[in-house]
Amino acid sequence: MRALSRFALLGLVLILGACAATDPLEEDLPDMGDFRLAYNIVVADNMQQVPPSREASGEEWIEILTAEIDRRFGGYEGDRLYHIAIHVDAYALAPPGIPVVLQPRSILVISANVWDDELQAKLHDDPEQLTIFEGAAPETMIIGSGLARSREEQMQILARNAARRIQLWMLTHPEWFSIDEDAAAEAQAALEAQVAEVEQPVELPEEAAE
Q1: pTM summary value
Q2: Cα distances (angstroms) measured from residue 47 to each of 56, 101, 109, 114, 165
Q3: Rounded-to-10 torsion of CA 123, 125, 126, 128
Q4: Residues 26-84 pLDDT 10s
Q5: How many C-alpha atoms does 160 have within 13 Å on its Cβ side?
Q6: Cα–Cα dist 48/131, whole Å
Q7: Cα–Cα distance between 160 and 108 in angstroms, integer?
Q8: What is d(CA 75, CA 158) in angstroms, rounded to the nearest whole number?
Q9: How much helix, strand and coil, in percent to the nearest 5, is found in the chain?
Q10: 209 pLDDT exceeds 50?
């Protein structure tokens, strides 16, 4: 009976593992003041792979990050143009076959910059380096991300999480986009809760852990 239960659980896990990351267009995106996306630039030269990891090319990261930045920020119709520039610093895509007890996690490290088009200037001195986590769901905690998710799914989840984290960082500077400070603080708190929910691992129920 226990063996049957485990096979049934594994089947459910594999079905759940096929689910993609939440589409940002299905989220209640925060107000961004006078922000309108102009250039969306992603660079992946000198990108480092952190083993153990599946392979992903710079071109693949450029394509998926560009798409997810457009998807999250492309709908804003403010009166002022801004550019978002990203450098892919490092990544690790959890491979299959790693013991579950190690709980390998996919990670993406990026450096982000925001430019004001009218001022022709960057709005901050140093790039904002962000470490993005794939996070975990019940299916990945049981059999690992490398088995529950494909390489492409891992990359999409990381790219969508990265776009969310970039927006969270931008909301800490409401003066850049003429956002009301109270509204920005409220939106920041909501996004922080989302980040904590999607990027942190979940705890397995006791019966699954056994």
Answers
A1: 0.82
A2: 10, 28, 9, 20, 19
A3: -30
A4: 778 999 999 999 999 999 999 999 998 999 999 999 999 999 999 999 999 999 999 99
A5: 20
A6: 13
A7: 11
A8: 21
A9: 45, 20, 35
A10: no
